[in-house]
Amino acid sequence: ITAAAWASGGALNTARRYCVGFGTPTTAVAATGYAATLSDSVEEYDGDTWTAATAIGNARYSASACGTLTAGLVVGGAPGTPLYDLTEEYDGTNWTATGTLNTGRMEASAFGIQTAAVLAGGATPGGTKSGATEEYDGSTWATSPGSLNTPRHQLPSGGAGTLTAGITFGGNDGTPPAPAVTGATETYDGSTWTSGGSLNTARSMVASALQGTTTSALCIAGPTQVIVEAYDGTAWATNPSTTVVHGAAGGVGTQSTGMVFGGRSPSSPTGMDNTELFTGETSAANIETLTTS
Q: Which of 130, 165, 238, 280 lies 20 to 30 Å (CA to CA) from residue 254?
């Protein structure tokens, strides 16, 4: 058995907080956020090094994202109208503005792919926590009949899963800006949200392994935490901690190969360039213990 562990990866070229990510640990994209100023910066990761890519059309922070290196999606964010409802798609080279949200918001949770995505929760321009859910078909956002059972903001910028099997967790269920962190976990089946097991440590502004599933999710760190938890569809279990705090960071990957980058911490409140890579526990049969009949 090889124990689960975190290892350092290549540093971002632009340190940032409130950023988003999509892709995988070997084909990742980090976009937007806030450093010294509002950022339109985009970088691509090849498993070792971050390289500057085409800037997004509209700088923003606290947006949401999902998809892949060649078919990514960034939606919502701040500051203000029209950026709260703006959607941009990435093809690996260029950004294209597409359909707007019906309920503009920031700090929402997103998951799925560029042509079948979900956005849920967040804070609206008026500062109200939201439970509203919308689905994206590649051009238009449509309001779902299902709303989060626990309306909240400061969610992971990417939840995990697909249009018909998605998950989100953590966040802040107080009225902005009042802090009231939650460990609530909910899964989405394409129309309805169902409550699941709560995080052992309630917290907001966590990162998520974006390609996780409803039965194999990873909740990473937080604004003052290095805690990592893994979900099996019923309960959360503690995993090895990150090396440093990552609040409002980007995250991609799966429960077995995860990644977190950027964000902020008490020691780096204006933004971080740190990247960390996660390898889950693995086991292999010992041939000396095998017998034949």
A: 130
- Sheet containing 87-90: order of strands: 64-68, 71-75, 87-90, 95-97
* Sequence-ordered list of residues with C-beta below 8 angstroms from that of 269, at least 6 positions apart, any chain: 17
Cross-strand bridge partners of residue 253: 258
161 close to 208: Cβ distance less than 8 angstroms:
no
Report pLDDT digits (tens) over 103-115.
999 999 999 999 9
- Dist. CA 232–CA 214, nearest whole Å: 8
Of 102, 105, 157, give the one whose Cα is nearest residue 129. 105
Write the pLDDT tens digit of every residue in 199-231. Answer: 999 999 999 999 999 999 999 999 999 999 999
Looking at residue 104, its pLDDT comes to: 93
Of 209, 148, 201, the closest CA to residue 170 belongs to 201
Q: Is the CB of residue 136 less than 8 Å from the CB of residue 119?
A: yes
Q: What angle do CA 235, 105, 177 make, to 5 degrees?
A: 75
Of the candidates 104, 100, 236, the one whose C-alpha atom is nearest the C-alpha of residue 169 is: 236
